[in-house]
Amino acid sequence: SPSSADAVLDGLDPEQREVATALHGPVCVLAGAGTGKTRAITHRIAYGVRAGILQPASVLAVTFTSRAAGEMRGRLRQLGADGVQARTFHSAALRQLQYFWPRAVGGELPRLVERKVQLVAEAGARCRIRLDRTELRDVTGEIEWAKVTQTVPEDYPACVAKAGRDAPRDPAEISRIYAAYEQLKRDRGVIDFEDVLLLTVGILQDRPDIAERIRGQYQHFVVDEYQDVSPLQQRLLELWLGDRDSLCVVGDASQTIYSFTGASPDHLLGFRTAHPNATVVKLVRDYRSTPQVVNLANGLLAQARGRAAEHRLELVSQRDPGPEPHFTEFPDEPAEAEGTARRIRELIDAGVSPGEIAILYRINAQSEVYEQALADQGVPYQLRGAERFFDRPEVREAGVALKGAARAGGNDPLLDDVEDLPSQVRAVLGTTGWTAEPPAGSGAVRERWESLAALVRLAEDFARGRPEATLADLVTELGERANVQHAPAVDGVTLASLHSAKGLEWDAVFLVGLTEGMMPLTHAKTDEQIEEERRLLYVGVTRARKHLTLSWALSRAPGGRAGRRPSRFLDGLRPGSGASHRGGPGGQGGVERGGGSRRRKRGPVLCRVCGRTLTDAGEMKLMRCEGCPSDLDEALYERLRDWRMQEAKELGQPAY
Ligand code: ATP
Ligand code: MG
């Protein structure tokens, strides 16, 4: 009814309401971090559904990560708009591909390639070109770029020249490796991440009958984080739309952080030109952060250069004043980690929940010292704050084991003399290698243990509420919770990379390791790459609601040469670094100085990705196995993982 639809508009400001009620025709929202873009589009869908204007099944909302998609679905459910598809481009495309593949191509959809970098190495070998680790990573990145820009191997050298790209090797060589890579995939019957979009685009272009079916199903499109749309995703969006224009996009050019994968804010910034009848709305009220945090974010943006920066929007905080951002310099990295952990301990003691705190870094390899330091302070933490609990491989595996045991009922010898439920769960998890005591060390092994411990706690709570409950009841309960992503509270401090923090927010954020070399990362060389690094820092700063700490260490190890300097992006922003920006943080004192660290005996070094104990000196330095994906590929890897999980979940579902 109209009145119940109107209730959805409560809690939106006038501009957000304009977005929410503009249900016809193209809409574009250009706005900075924390201004409620995601909130506005979520309420827009809910409003349309509740007002009876949008059919839930006819709406496709596209988000950047499957976590964001899950959050949006949950929010829509709360707002009384069930049944709307909220997905990533990849997961939406994959569903459609699975559905239409047998008809369009015949047979089953090929599997996704497991180790892409390895395949690129083999392709190099076929061309008699040896690639070292760095080249391998860079060439893989080039192939990805070529594919998302729909460049075929033959055209690659010309396109590189035209785009003014700095190719990591002779473009003619890369072109040959790219062609060999494509051939290898065909030989093995596998497809890669980019193929999912390419194949969907190809089928929609070549098969009008199939395109019509899809267009018949989806009438309205909403895209979040549109500044990071790749040309290929844009093409897919256009094919979905056909000649219709019910499209609503939101984005912030200042948060473009994936242009290294071919994404570009041009589609966002050129939206009005492409759609002259578009409703364009700007939001400037920042609901997320205090004036102090917003001030720093504005200061950072004021220094930004390039196309995205021309469209920056100064943010205006709507919140009460809070503490000034802290700038802290440490003599070495372990000291930085210790100081950070101590400060986090203080915040928790002062009543801040651990789940409301995050430590964000540039690359994953930076997390290890922080894990150690948090463990020393007895602070719970989670490395994969961004990954949904029920999608974690160990939780899936545990689910399968529990289901098996529940099916065996009383006949499972393992559970013979165990009634109460938590002990049964512990026994079943024991078969997957879980122990009641946490394992020594940190990293992936510890993380897996924490997930399963959370599952045991969930079973304990469940049994407390329903003392007569059986294992089968618990399995049913888990299934229901997984459906609505009602994860057990893993109330820990989040450790995450800046890339994976996109769209999220916490009360307290610690941006660590802000030295030259890390921020910007050494591999950023061109002006454009440097600007992207600056935007990444902007994304980090704007994740904080209230407490924000920026820190760096002058040397890596205790007693080392203090040769590092703080990130150039903090020049003019950190107290005592020359001309302070307009209304800068100034105020309270200067840069704080943390003490040095005690040297400590270290435990075994574990692979950051798979958790294996490392013995090889080279691998120990990398802190991961040679074969495991590199941290620098983090952003891509994360997207791949997101997609793989979605894939696993959706395999076998006939609907699209
Ligand atoms: P980002 O660019 O980081 O993705 P965003 O523009 O999508 O940010 P949201 O995440 O939608 O911003 O909103 C930021 C925070 O502000 C959220 O906690 C949201 O609930 C809150 N918020 C947004 N709009 C309002 C409003 N009108 N009144 C109160 N709170 C609001
Ligand atoms: Mg958002």
Automatic annotation (TrEMBL):
Database matches in CDD domains: DEXQc_UvrD (cd17932), SF1_C_UvrD (cd18807)
InterPro entries: DExx_box_DNA_helicase_dom_sf, DNA_helicase_UvrD-like_C, DNA_helicase_UvrD/REP, HRDC-like_sf, HRDC_dom, HRDC_dom_sf, P-loop_NTPase, UvrD-like_ATP-bd
Source organism, top-level taxon: Bacteria
This protein's UniProt keywords: ATP-binding, Helicase, Hydrolase, Isomerase, Nucleotide-binding
UniProt catalytic activity: Couples ATP hydrolysis with the unwinding of duplex DNA by translocating in the 3'-5' direction; ATP + H2O = ADP + phosphate + H(+)
Residue span, UvrD-like helicase ATP-binding domain: 10-290
EC number: 5.6.2.4
Composition-biased stretches (Gly residues): 581-594
Residue ranges of domain UvrD-like helicase C-terminal in the record: 291-546
Keyword Protein biosynthesis part of the UniProt annotation: no
Pfam families reported for this sequence: HRDC, UvrD-helicase, UvrD_C
Gene3D superfamilies per the UniProt record, alphabetical: 1.10.10.160, HRDC domain, P-loop containing nucleotide triphosphate hydrolases, PCRA, domain 4
PROSITE patterns: HRDC, UVRD_HELICASE_ATP_BIND, UVRD_HELICASE_CTER
List of residues binding ATP: A31, G32, A33, G34, T35, G36, K37, T38
Region (Disordered): 557-601
A GO MF term: helicase activity
SUPFAM superfamilies, per database record: HRDC-like, P-loop containing nucleoside triphosphate hydrolases
Broad class of enzyme this protein falls into: isomerase
Family membership noted in the UniProt record: Belongs to the helicase family. UvrD subfamily.
PANTHER family per UniProt: ATP-DEPENDENT DNA HELICASE UVRD2, UVRD / RECB / PCRA DNA HELICASE FAMILY MEMBER
Protein name: DNA 3'-5' helicase
Naturally occurring in which organism (per UniProt): Streptomyces meridianus
